[in-house]
Design goal:
Length: about 220
């Protein structure tokens, strides 16, 4: 039986792509760089914000200086606008409530920077108690490095066998593999199901309520 469910945030619990795109495009335009369609950001996100800006910048402009310039403009804008268009995916609030009612520990493991992760999770899920809400933190490697999962396991006091990691991207599937925990890919996120299946996760689900049935595995 699973006693801990660890969720990725962007593309798994919340559809944040419009706000991420809007904020990055703002920062790009402010500094004279071309912007992108929202759909392009599905493949820019997932590895932390510095990698997002590197991918969004034009070829030949992907310098550390430019990345830091875009980062400064992005953070100032996104801090105000990070919940403008972001919303939980269908069935997610109900799933979290059901898991909590069954006594399951719930945690978030995100590559979104820590301040935004800590802001968005309680904003959209105020009635849920999370064992841990961890994002990208200074000095801690980003996913797919397993450090974030190991930190959550330590806080939760459960074994790997009792843990299920749920996410929407190749980064998430690799994180679960690297951590030695069961993986569940979700089909509603930013990346195609084929990307998830390439990592042979134990489960792939198409609706949030399907995750509840995985408690007893």
């Amino acid at each position: 039986m699973k006693r801990l469910f660890i969720f990725d945030l962007d593309g798994t619990l919340l559809n944040t792509i419009a706000d991420l795109a809007q904020s990055t495009n703002y920062a790009l335009a402010k500094n004279g760089f071309p912007t992108h369609e929202v759909g392009a950001y599905n493949y820019f996100v997932g590895n932390g914000i510095n990698k997002l800006f590197e991918r969004a910048l034009p070829e030949g402009e992907k310098t550390e200086e430019n990345i830091l310039t875009i980062r400064r403009a992005f953070l100032a804008y996104y801090d105000i606008h990070n919940a403008d268009k972001s919303r939980p995916y269908p069935g997610i609030p109900e799933l979290l409530q059901a898991l909590q009612a069954k006594g399951v520990q719930i945690a978030v493991a995100s590559n979104k920077y820590q301040a935004a992760t800590e802001k968005l999770v309680p904003h959209f899920f105020p009635d849920i108690h999370f064992t841990a809400i961890l994002g990208q933190r200074e000095g801690v490697p980003t996913k797919p490095d397993p450090a974030i999962v190991h930190d959550i396991l330590s806080l939760a006091g459960v074994s790997k066998a009792e843990t299920l990691y749920i996410g929407d991207s190749n980064v998430d599937m690799q994180t679960a593999l690297n951590s030695g925990v069961d993986a569940c890919g979700v089909a509603w996120g930013f990346r195609p199901v084929s990307e998830l299946e390439a990592f042979h996760p134990r489960f792939v689900v198409h609706r949030a309520e399907e995750i509840l049935a995985l408690l007893e595995v």
